[in-house]
Amino acid sequence: MSTVVLSGCGNEIPDKNDVKPISWYVEHPEIRKEMIKKCRDNPGEKNPNCTNAIFADYEDYKGPDTEK
User: Taxonomically, which superkingdom (predicted)?
Assistant: First the structure.
């Protein structure tokens, strides 16, 4: 089990056994960026955090839902 620490903020990139929801990644953009970078470096690894971080990046980009 490996963990990456982001210096200065005290937050860690979760490993694949600590699955964070999309909303968590939306609220933690710096960790989301680092997770996406890690996932792109090893695209063959099956890690649900990769999927959630990518979806969170999309959610953050498109903005909140505007359904009526």
Answer: Bacteria
3 close to 12: Cβ distance less than 8 angstroms: yes
C-alpha separations of 50 from 6, 8, 23, 37, 67 in Å = 17, 23, 13, 9, 26
CB atoms within 10 A of CB 26: 18
- Give me the domain span that covers residue 21: 13-62
| Residue 55 forms part of a structural domain | yes
Name the DSSP class of 44. Answer: T
CA distance 25 to 68: 25
Dist CA 20 CA 50 (whole Å): 10
pLDDT tens for residues 24-57?
Answer: 999 999 999 999 999 999 999 999 999 999 999 9
Domain total of the chain: 1
